[in-house]
Amino acid sequence: MERSVDRASLGAFLRARREALQPEDVGLRRGSRRRARGLRREEVAELCDMSSDYFARLERGNGPQPSQQMAAAIARGLRLTPDERDHLFLLCGHRTPRRQLRGEHVNPGLMRVLDRLRDTPAQVMGPLGETLLQTPPAVALLGEQTHYSGEARSAPYRWFTEPGARSRYLPDDHEANSRVNVSLLRAATTREGPQSQAARLVRSLLHHSAEFASLWDQQEVGLHWNSAKRFVHPQVGRIDLFCQNLLDPDQAQSLLIFTATPGTESHDKLALLNVLGTDSFTVG
C-alpha cells in the first residue's frame, strides 16, 4: 500500500545529502570561489536530470510528490547507498524497490570511479548485461545502450535477437561471443534458480533464437570474456582495445573500462572518438 509523501522530512534529507556531497565526489572541480557547503542545488539538479527549481521546491518541502522514476533519478544523482535509496522511496510515499530493481541502483563506489572517467569509454553493467550508465566516450564507441526496455535491456538477449547488436564487434569474434553469453547465462540460472529473471530470459531466448538453443544444448560452462576486445566502428573502422572489469560482488554490478595501447592506431582512433563525443558523426 502506498504511503503519503513526507515533504518536510524529504526536504531535510535531500538538503543533508546534498551538503554532504563534495564536488570531487561527482567529478566536478571545486574552484577557488566556492562557498557553498557541499554541492549547489543546480549541480544536484543536473546530476538528477531535473530542473533546479523542481529540486529547490523539494528541498523547501513544497514540491510535488516525486514519481518512482524521479525518486530513482534523485537516488542516483545524490549517490545514495541502497539503504538511503530505500529511505528516500519511503519519504516520497512509495514502497521500497523490489530486489530485482534494487540491483539496478548503481553502487555509489562504482559511480565515484565512473565520475573520474569522463574522458574514457566506461560503463556500469547489471547482472544480466543491462547497461546502467555510460560515459560519453562509451556512447561514441558502442552506441547508446541505456534506453532499452524489457528483455531487450539485456545485452545477451539483444545479441541473439537483434541483428544490429553485433555490428560493432569484429565478425571473427561473433561465435566466441555467442558461446560466452550462453555460458554466463547458464551460470546465472544455476545460481539464481528456475524462477529467477535469468531463467526467464533463457526460456525466452530458447523460444526466439535457434542459435541460442543450439548452443544451450552443448552444456558449456566456465567460459569468460577475453580482456582483448576488437570493435568495428561505423566511422573509424576497427579498434583493438583492452577491457578492465571492476566487479562489485554485493550488487552483482561491474564497471567496464576500455583502453588502448598508447602509440597504436587504435589509440589514435579512440582519441578521435573522445573528441567528437558522439557515435552519430559523419566523415566528410
Number of domains: 2
Question: Strand tally, please?
Answer: 5
Mean pLDDT: 88
Query: Sheet with the most strands?
Result: 5 strands, antiparallel
Distance between the termini: 58 Å
The radius of gyration over CA amounts to 21 Å
Q: Please identify, by name, the CATH architecture of the largest domain.
A: 2-Layer Sandwich
Annotation field: number of helices:
13
Which range does the strand content fall in? 5-15%
- Low-pLDDT segments: 279-284
Dominant shape = globular
Residues in helix, %:
40-55%
What's the CATH topology label of the largest domain? Beta-Lactamase
From N to C, what is the helix and strand string? Answer: HHHHHHHEEHHHHHEEEH
Strand neighbour order, sheet with most strands = 2-1-5-4-3
Describe this structure in words.
With 284 residues, this protein is of the alpha+beta class. It folds into 2 domains: 7-97, Orthogonal Bundle (434 Repressor (Amino-terminal Domain)), CATH 1.10.260.40; 109-276, 2-Layer Sandwich (Beta-Lactamase). It is built from 13 helices and 5 strands. The chain has helices at residues 7-20, 41-47, 52-60, 68-77, 82-91, 99-102, 108-115, 136-142, 155-161, 174-192, 197-208, 210-216, 265-276; strands at 122-125, 131-134, 228-233, 237-248, 253-259. Strands 2-1-5-4-3 form a 5-stranded antiparallel sheet. A hairpin with a 3-residue loop joins strand 3 and strand 4. Helix 1 (7-20) packs across helix 3, helix 2 packs across helix 4 and helix 11 (197-208) crosses helix 12. The longest helix is centred in the middle third of the chain and has 19 residues, at 174-192. It is globular. The model is unreliable at 279-284 (pLDDT under 50).
